[in-house]
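Exercise 7. Predict the joint structure of the components listed below.
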Amino acid sequence: MELSAHERAVAEGAEGEASAMAMRIVAEAGRLLGAPSLIEIASVHVDGCLYHGDSGVNFIEHLVSEDGRVCVPTTLNVGALDLLHPERVRGDSHFRDMARRLMDGHLALGCTQSFTCTPYQAGHRPGLGEHVAWGESNAVAFANSVLGARTNRCGDFLDICAGISGRAPFCGLHLDENRRARAVVRTDSLSSSLKDTDAFYPVLGAWLGATFGETVAVIDGLPRVLSDDRLKAVAAGAASTGAIGLFHIAGVTPEAPTIEAACGGVAPEAEISLTADMIRQARNRLSTVDDHCIDAVAVGSPHFSRAEFDALASLSRGQRFTIPFYACTGRDVLAALEADGKRTALEAAGVIFVVDTCVVVAPILPEAGGVLMTNSAKFAHYGPANTGFDVVYGSLSDCVASASEGRVVRDETVWR
Amino acid sequence: MAVTLTGEVLIDGTAEGPLFRLAKPISFWGGVDPTSGRITDPRHPDYDACVAGTVLALSETIGSSSSSAVMLELIAAGLAPRALLLGRPDAILTLSVVVAREMKFGSIPVLRVPVETLPDSGYAYIREGGKMTFET
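Solution:
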């Protein structure tokens, strides 16, 4: 692990204790990962402003007290509080105080007040080949796969230290040889109607992560135009059930004009033909109960986009939900919905907006527990452990129909 | 019976405790309770087991990058494993040990070792330089 003269000087304290600690931590991360050196990065997305305990707050406040400051544009992932609707999140005063201090501490270090897990839909879109250091597993997979930026999965602490030092370990997905696909997934046997269903994409992601762990795969045979929302659903599913930091979709994502290009001209080590049965099994694994009464619906993991709210608005027109329907999103999207007058219409149907945070990272869902329905593979994956709720996976229209009836209503025809 | 192996040192140190080989990889965030060290993911085969005080062996870490924060909290609260034996080096769990050291919360040894070469269970002694002894 070779540091430049400048990096060494910073690590030894030439620019103060916060910069020194940040550089040492990034350098240690590099050593652990076997990186030969550090690389300058253009931006950071910090996952570390979600409160998990006082130790993380102590760490950030230590950096603040030593005059730490990020030196590249740095956005923030969700915190543990909805700062615009403080009543949403339950918690005692210690929790609220510490969660707030952690969010404030990151702002004091110079991070942008984005508080979203979809920074890439909030204007933070690094370019093809640009080296960045991002946290939040869905955002990492999106940045690498869809934008063609280059980042490893930066855990909490490494992310903010990268922002302060402007450096990341030069290894892993920063290098060409680790970005080529080693597995090919064929989807010829899946119907085009399934591939034209939004609810297919979270399941595809969940299957990908469960099947490949962290192996880079290229998927063939999908529609040549895929919305950011479908791509983010694949990214989020794959990064929840596995450690996928990068995937390619032939003809769609920037490093995969063809299967051969995605594989870097090397024969793939594995080739799988995806069947409708495998997809149904992956879908079923996203539910812990089947046909059941439900107690709440949650959408927006990753955070709901404006386009997703448009779809929700047209599905829920004239509906009146009988159970809580949570929609998690960024404050930028909520502001746009307010400006358009769409917030009121959605609330009239019963949509409860959650911003700056989400229902699986903060105590928001009804305390009594029960069954949660969602159109998100990530909510379905993390819901049971984090909230105690059982989960049922369905499409957005299934979620809307179920929220009106208070029991699972699913259209099975698309999965056949 | 005692088995002696040598791992690659990621973070040096000494420790001892019951060996706990995770049956499957786990995301510490969403999978391990930071206030107790218990495995809270009901779909994990080791559901409800506790990582605190064990010499924890896992082939890889998966899932959320918030796992670092959960690990730091476990170290600061004295509820961490006494050592980590990782099938592949990671900058998620191991980095928490680096941060814990910087913050003077304490440290635990972390070794890289092919997990399949370890005994299934037993009592583990970790010494400096990556030497591991397992009494089975």
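Discussion. Residues 219 and 249 of chain A are 5 Å apart (CA to CA).
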